[in-house]
Amino acid sequence: xVSRKKAKGxxxxxxxKANANAKxxxxxxxxxxxxxxxxxxxxxxxxxxxxxxxxxxxxxxIESVLELFRRTKSLSGTFHAAxxxxxxxxxxxxxxxxxxxWIASSLVSIGVEVLxxxxxxxxxRFLVVSSVTxxxxxxxxxxxxxxxxxxxxxxxxxxxxxxADERRIIxxxxxxxxxxxxxxxxxxxxHLPKHGLCCFLGCSHPKVxxxxxxxxxxxxxxxYCSEECQAAEWSRHREECKVWREWEAxxxxxxS
Length: 256
Hints:
Elements: H1 4-30, H2 35-39, H3 57-71, H4 75-89, H5 97-116, H6 122-146, H7 155-162, H8 166-174, H9 183-189, E1 195-197, E2 207-209, E3 214-215, E4 223-224, H10 227-255
Helix pairs in contact: 3-4, 3-5, 4-6, 5-6, 6-7, 8-9
């Protein structure tokens, strides 16, 4: 006869497993996307999925990122989880700029395809923003860590994309594809005002119209909703601003 303690233990494990499976099924339904289906489309939005075989680690990399997107409900959490997990599981890919750029192209294609499907529920928006932001991070990482084209990454742009509205996302993706698949979507949103995100972490109203924002005059890479927010953020931004200014001075000297 099974003891009462063991029976309770088995019941707890079964309940935990059922709960975990339910969460996975819920997320899978919440973010309905199939990479194999995208590969069958007549237009893959500039992504050449045949460049690597289906059993190549690059395809597995993408699938693992999509699985993390499905399982995580926080945009910031998803972004960091995808970075950490793939750095650990696919370290050789993170050393190869060609493979990384191919993966970034796939994420852009995924974002476009989800928008083209037309649904506007929160689950699809989550997948689009996650794909776009992670693709941007890969581009920044390649430029900074591998090619040494720039002195550091550009976190303000990543933060802005994580909080981007529909107009910004569609505009960002449209500029990165060779096809016209987003033309009609862009025509719908192009009349909307452009918004930016205040870089001061403590800002109480971070989204403002782009034309009304204050920019750091020294590096022109961080933007604020007011002069007060810019002053409040200076202690954090100072070192990063110095890095960009010194790099630009070197670039100007090399080009002259």
